[in-house]
Design a protein that fits this description.
about 270 residues, alpha+beta, 3 helical TM bundles of succinate and fumarate reductases, six-stranded mixed sheet, 11 helices, about 55% helix, globular, ubl conjugation pathway, ubiquitin binding
């Protein structure tokens, strides 16, 4: 699960009581953890040197060794809130940050966004709510066209209302791409579910973690290259990377640790 307990979170252990519904107790604990994470963690953190990651794993030989292989390639990291939306928050922050330095890409993205709303309508997404999410995204892009700065992107992505609207719209874009290409993606969905069922259960709801299919769909839909660096306990001394799509030069770099994504910056 992605709702990791932060260092400042203190959850009291509960003794077993046969008179208490244990499922409800677990749900209450999860809610408490989520609320404390929300209270203590920014949606997008400040820029940190990659040395902070090395320090974090100084007592873990496997992770520490792998982090050292990242140091020559990457200089900084931005932490994202571990609330199930971390991939999407990391993606949109890194992409908008790239766009303010590459205005041609901002123009291309704006044109894509303008046409995306009608496509969602044609696929049966509810007009009233979809339009609200779309309009907020357009408002952000138009604002960045005029006053684009890293500080402005930070402010936008850390404003709860705005950030959540952007995340929801990205989820709709992912869902639309998966459903448009259902014949292909159906082979990768487990549990006997249809692509539409998978989207309703795992893609469109907030706080649902993103997996490989989400990333494939989003990068293909928008036409943006993303490289994910996988920091885990897999074999080998180096951190394994994967590009989405494989034939596109990545402009966004994300660090994956089991259940969580942060933003990386090239050295």
């Amino acid at each position: 699960m992605e709702n990791h307990q932060s260092e400042d979170t203190h959850i009291k252990p509960c003794e077993y009581d046969p008179n208490v519904n244990q499922d409800e107790l677990i749900m209450a604990q999860e809610k408490q953890i989520a609320e404390e994470i929300k209270a203590n963690t920014s949606m997008i953190g400040s820029l940190q040197g990659l040395g902070s990651l090395a320090k974090e794993y100084s007592n873990d030989p496997v992770y520490s060794s792998k982090v050292r292989t990242l140091l020559p390639k990457f200089s900084n990291v931005r932490r994202t809130r571990p609330d199930g939306n971390c991939f999407l928050r990391g993606f949109i922050f890194a992409y908008l940050e790239y766009c303010i330095h590459h205005r041609d890409e901002l123009t291309r993205f704006k044109k894509y966004l303008e046409g995306s709303k009608e496509e969602l309508f044609e696929m049966g997404f509810p007009k009233f709510t979809t339009e609200d999410f779309h309009d907020m995204f357009m408002e952000v892009v138009n604002d960045l066209e005029g006053s684009g700065s890293v500080g402005r992107v930070e402010a936008v992505c850390n404003d709860a209302g705005t950030s959540d609207y952007l995340v929801v719209y990205l989820r709709l874009l992912i869902s639309a791409h998966l459903q448009k290409n259902a014949e292909f993606f159906s082979f990768f969905i487990e549990g006997g579910r249809t692509v539409e069922e998978f989207c309703k259960q795992e893609v469109e709801p907030m706080y649902r973690e993103c997996d490989h299919l989400h990333i494939v769909a989003l990068t293909a839909a928008i036409g943006v290259g993303v490289r994910v660096m996988y920091l885990d306990r897999g074999e080998g001394a180096a951190v394994v990377s994967h590009d989405f799509p494989e034939d596109k030069e990545p402009i966004i770099h994300l660090l994956y640790r089991p259940g969580h994504y942060d933003i990386l910056y090239k050295a």
